Amino acid sequence: MKKIEIKAEQFFELLRLKDTSMWSLFSQMIDGEEKEIIFLDNDEKILFNYILPSKPEKLEEDRKEFSKEFSDKLSNLN
Question: What is the pTM of this model?
Answer without folding.
Answer: 0.81
